[in-house]
UniProtKB/TrEMBL annotation:
Heme b binds at residue 334. InterPro entries: Indolamine_dOase, Trp/Indoleamine_2_3_dOase-like. GO terms for biological process: 'de novo' NAD+ biosynthetic process from L-tryptophan; L-tryptophan catabolic process to kynurenine. Keywords: Heme, Iron, Metal-binding. GO terms for molecular function: heme binding; indoleamine 2,3-dioxygenase activity; L-tryptophan 2,3-dioxygenase activity; metal ion binding. Belongs to the indoleamine 2,3-dioxygenase family. This is Indoleamine 2,3-dioxygenase. It comes from the Eukaryota. GO terms for cellular component: cytoplasm.
Length: 373
């Protein structure tokens, strides 16, 4: 793709906002009236699960055609709502009693939406975080405390909201880095200011990720709603090869991965720009999770990788090593969060991350890759 030098044009093409980065700006919160049954169940998910009445409600859910969904934002909201319903259905009885199929009144419209968006039919970073926020009061700067989630609310505890809104704030803070990278790729020149913007955005994000425990007690996350983000690659689901989507049985079981930080486009793009290389196993893991990103975001990573190869090496630019160090510190902070919220509550019995991946060694390898640049 060739652009005429306009940063905003490039950002628009790749569905990136100059202020919110990969976070969808101003997500839609309500679909047209015929889709109200999706909203009603999603809004009552917590009570329906607690009262053991979710399946009764889902059996009454009509099969709703998606033809009336016309805009990108409508499709993103539909994906969020339907993956919320799917997660509730599969995991309503806990992580060890998963349902093995997803009913057709969810799976058929979900597949239609996914085919139009290029997304996977499972709750992922693109839906549960990037398209799942709404301001509760006027903001001049994005503030997780002034934002609520639209759906995927399985607990009344504020942890459910804070986990996603704080992650959304991290995405916004990293927009500065993405805009700087875009400008450098367009103009074919990396300046000290480019490195400053990358370092500044990543440093702010590092401070923010360390705030997770302000409203998310580790035991609430680990035992309360983490399993709703899980993939279809474990336990009984794994034994049959993945989840079965009713009405799409011809596709066979689908071993989809759950929501994961590896599905965030930002650090894939930063790695490509700064020349941070990963070992084959790590790169294969990251490449797999790129399949869960919106297509334009995946395309942006490839565009950065292609264009940075035409520019004199970034490592020769003042501020490069400071930017690398900032990325390393963020990844170390992420490991601290993973340790506190997953490894410690599991009491050493699990090496499974929210995305269903064996992850601790992998995360340490990703940190170490920052040292080998």
């Amino acid at each position: 793709m060739v652009f005429n030098g306009d940063v905003l044009e490039v950002l628009k093409y790749f569905e990136i906002d100059q202020n919110t980065g990969f976070l969808l700006p101003n997500p839609l919160t309500k679909l047209p009236a015929q889709f109200e049954p999706w909203h009603e169940i999603a809004d009552e998910i917590q009570q329906l699960i607690e009262n053991h009445t979710l399946e009764d409600r889902l059996q009454q859910l009509p099969l709703i055609a998606t033809d009336a969904l016309k805009t990108h934002n409508e499709l993103r909201l539909a994906h969020l709502l339907l993956t919320t319903l799917a997660a509730a259905h599969v995991w309503r009885d806990g992580p060890d009693k998963a349902q093995l199929t997803i009913p057709a009144n969810i799976s058929l419209p979900l597949f239609d939406v996914c085919n139009r968006l290029g997304l996977k039919p499972i709750a992922c970073h693109a839906s549960a975080c990037l398209a799942n926020w709404k301001p509760t009061q006027e903001m001049t700067i994005f503030n997780a405390s002034m934002v609520d989630i639209i759906s995927f609310r399985f607990l009344q505890h504020p942890a459910n909201r804070w986990f996603f809104t704080l992650t959304a704030q991290i995405e916004v803070e990293l927009a500065e880095a993405i805009c700087a990278i875009t400008s450098a790729c367009i103009h074919g020149k990396i300046e000290q200011s480019t490195m400053h913007h990358i370092c500044n955005g990543v440093t702010k994000a590092t401070g923010t990720i360390q705030r997770m425990e302000e409203h998310v007690p580790p035991d609430i996350f680990y035992n309360g709603f983490r399993h709703f983000l899980a993939g279809y690659t474990r336990n009984a689901i794994a034994k049959q090869g993945g989840i079965i989507f009713e009405g799409k049985e011809c596709l066979g079981p689908q071993p989809l991965h759950g929501g994961s930080a590896a599905q965030s486009t930002t650090f894939h793009a930063i790695d490509a720009f700064l020349g941070i290389k990963h070992a084959a196993g790590v790169e294969a893991f990251l490449a797999h999770h790129r399949e869960y990103m919106p297509p334009k975001h995946r395309e942006f990573i490839a565009w950065v990788r292609e264009n940075v190869g035409k520019i004199p090496p970034a490592r020769n630019v003042p501020g490069y090593h400071e930017a690398i160090l900032a990325v390393k510190k963020f990844r170390e902070a992420h490991i601290d969060v993973v340790t506190k919220f997953i490894v410690s509550p599991a009491k050493g019995n699990s090496e499974i991350g929210t995305g269903g991946s064996s992850f601790m060694n992998l995360l340490h390898n990703i940190v170490d890759d920052c040292c080998g640049v």
